[in-house]
Amino acid sequence: MGQKKLIKFAAIKEYENVLEYPQAMPGKWEAFFLALTQLKNNTKQGSPSIHVDELSIQEAKHPLVLELACGRGEYAVGLGRLFPHQHFIGLDIKGNRIWKGASIAKRDGLSNVAFVRTQIDQVTSYFAKNEVDEIWITFPDPQLRFSKAKKRLTHPKFLRLYQSFLKAKGIVHLKTDSPNLYLFTQTVIELYGLNLITATDNLYGTDFRQSEKWEDRFAIKTYYEGLNIASSNRIHYLSFTLDKELPIELDDVLKEKIADFEITETHDSLARNGKQAME
Q1: Residue 136: predicted pLDDT
Q2: Distance (Å, whole) CA 253 – CA 157
Q3: Residue span of the structural domain in which 194 resides
Q4: Global pTM?
Q5: What is the count of structural domains for the chain?
Q6: Residue 213: inside a domain, yes or no?
Q7: Alpha helices in 41-136 (DSSP H)
Q8: Of the candidates 146, 153, 237, 137, which has an alpha carbon nearest to the alpha carbon of residue 188?
């Protein structure tokens, strides 16, 4: 591991707004953010302490929003600025990436923004039933090979995990430059009968920006968005709710459906073919 990475890993271990594989956190995030705020206001010293009986889910007054596979945490930080009365948590396994967002939040006194270093498939260990209001999935690895479809963060395998802590009418947002992942997610929503709220294959297009569906939070840009890895020249966005069961028996049907439009080739080739399939 490079020297810079080692320095960043060491730094986040001392950051009060970063937790690594935290224990006993379900239902205690309101208390955690209260402690962060108190620390910001110099009413406490050192890391914020979590008291199990201090606050419960029922007493929580601030919506809790997650950014999964947050990378450098641009969305968590950006949302934290836009909505100071909500709480935001970015989750990622890459500590050197989390360091960036955590450092900015710490520097700017954003006590409503925090980060958790962990694998996404362990997310159910950190949140209680009905504790989370919204989930943002921003530019995740699209896992373009057909054989890796189950690793996509909008695959039913992951959606079932989110259902264990997302409120019944909680919203899942996907922002991606991958036409393939966008089409895949649309297929999931249709097959499982989920409620699609908004969908556009050109988020920054004039038509959508001038529509009543446009919101300021859509304009937040991540580092990876700027790279435009998929070379699609378009940003795709959709949002939906998870208020229905996701029958496991439909997973095989999903596999058959996506086989009709997915190609197991290189990343760039898949991006091009995925875009053509949508047109």
Answers
A1: 98
A2: 14
A3: 3-23+63-121+129-278
A4: 0.86
A5: 1
A6: yes
A7: 74-82, 95-107
A8: 153
